[in-house]
Amino acid sequence: MSRAARLALAAAAAAIAALVVGMIAGGTAFPRIIPGLPDAGVVVRWGLPLSKLLMDAAGVVTVGLLLMAATLLPNDKGVLGKSALDYVKAASWAALAWAGAAFLSIVFGVAESIGRTVPQVLDRTILTSYATQTTQGVALTLVVLFGVAIALFSRGAITAGAAAGLLVFAMVTLLPAPLTGHSSSSPNHDLATSSVSLHVLALALWVGGLGVLALHALRKQPQLEVAAARFSRMALWCFVGVGLSGVFALVARLGSISDLWTTEYGLLAVAKLVAFVLLGYVGYWHRQRTLVDLEAGRPKAFVRLAGGELLLMSATMGVGVALSRTEPPEFVLPADRAFELLGFPVPPPITLGNIFSMWWFDLFFAVVAAVLAGLYGLGVRRLLSRGDRWSWGRTASWYIGVALLVFATQSGLARYAQVMFDIHMIEHMTLSMVVPIFLVLGGPVTLALRALKPAARRGDRGPREWITTILHSRFTKVVTHPVVATAIFVASTYALYFTPLFESAMNEHLGHIWMTLHFLISGCLFFWVIIGVDPAPNRLPYVWRLLMLFVTMPFHAFFGIALMMMSGVIASGWYEQLGRTWGDTLIQTQRDGGAIAWGFGEIPTLIVLLAIAAQWYKDDDRQARRADRKAERTGAGDPELDSYNDYLARLNRADKGE
Ligand code: HEM
Fold first, then answer.
1. Are 594 and 562 in contact, with CB atoms under 8 Å apart?
2. Which of residues 264, 299, 332 is at a domain's end?
3. Residue 365 · residue 413 · CB < 8 Å
4. What is the pTM (predicted TM-score) of this model?
5. Has residue 343 been placed in a domain?
6. Residue 440's domain spans which residues?
7. Which of 194, 236, 272, 319 for mutating ligand 1's site (highest number of atoms within 8 Å of CB)?
8. Model confidence at 535, in pLDDT bands (50, 70, 90)?
């Protein structure tokens, strides 16, 4: 058996052994069976966590293989090399195992939830109703479908672009299960679900990337030092991501710090913390020693340490799955439906003071804002440190955009937006019409293209080349087409509020994240086309940009009026469950929401008009100066100016009757 196969087997054994020990320590291995209560039996008791571990492991391996192929191994002008092609093919099998494990989790999940044995639930109606009507069932079904899709598409992927697309798809496929796991029973379920999702994303890149790198080394494949150097840069951020998200996941589940040493759940988490610190030390040692040796052509130390590191990571994954199966410490939750839905009680009557004081931490968008602010700052710092200039106006605009994003998703506005439709509309309008204006005026793509170094190897794709490739891709050409960008911006608003979509989005944390991201992205797309300073495939003349703006704004007004005219309450099921006892009635807040949608558009329209005027003036001025410089250089006048002067001279002569 090859060394690579032996390492893979050892990693699987370490994960399963840690899962078994974790389940015994967590008290889920041999639970007390209460006579008369349904019990699914030992097969399900072990089958479910094992299938979940297999699902997590297969997801991590699929991500690792695609990451290696798309970004860690150099490619030639976007065409994958032999090793990379092998990894994409292997990803096809890993994705199939992923889908299979998710299907197994559905079968065991049904059996556990209705307390029946596996043979008793292998009935199409039972499985279909679980897979289509329970949140967990729908999530796992998505993993099955997406897993099969990745397996199929990987068969034909031969370019770095295709491998990168599959990598993004695989990262998205990691989310449904943790976003609907038992973390939704924690008091602050938004924090609980967001933290575990970010946790799984970061650890998939970290563990998956290291696993395939160790495999690559053991199979003595080429370009190991390049891939290892690239992975090492990424691994530090993954380490930080796994640690922070793990701690937030813990905070969302523990009632007090003492739960760490007084509960099984807490003790398992401590075991993970210890493993995490050890892994941090191993990473430090790689940077200090083994990567240096590897660079110098001595891979032995790196291979040995990476192998040990992978075993520790696999064992920690086993403990992680055992932890996700262990009941977190009991919380005394207020018997209040609103608290169950929101993770916080209905806030007191709304005041401006409450909007500015009742902040509610949203981990997902806090991370989005931190990444936007951090990357932009790093880019500006790099330009300035090498003596290049960058406009302070753009920097200020970017950080105003990020600050408004933080305010819209973290302040009392975000809290009240969940209980009042009109405040939700203010949040929607801010996220889709104000934040994007400031972000696109910040010129992030131009900054990235100026700050990032070209790839060290000719024809290879580093971050800079990836940005250029995406900018020139057919996808970008289509979505930035003015008609498409306008249609997405306008039609999606109607589609969201005049269909059951809005209520589902309000009911599910995943739905709420998607809705907020959609507001942001559709807004950025629309305003990029109109006032974006970054290069765009479809650059419109200024008159057309004005037209695009004036054509779009009435649709917002119509939307507002339609809301004001409606007799029924949108998402009534959601708002009625909250049982808000103060303020206006549901229909009145909806009408106010309509008025806001109608009136709010004026502010961004004014800002955009000013931006277009300024850009138009600057452009004209730039062209005039360019024409002057050309005239000076060639001595040839400006043909346009010359013909105009000729025309004036002819008029003059005509006046004089010559
Ligand atoms: C600072 C260190 C860490 C802390 C505090 C931590 C904490 C947590 C918490 C609270 C959960 C959620 C469990 C639940 O659903 O109730 C979790 C899940 C998990 N953790 Fe960690 N973790 C840490 C590091 C790691 C590391 C280093 C790995 C692997 C290399 C890991 C792998 C996992 C896995 C696989 C899950 C299950 C995810 C799922 O639901 O599918 N964790 N972790």
1. yes
2. 332
3. no
4. 0.87
5. yes
6. 337-600
7. 272
8. confident
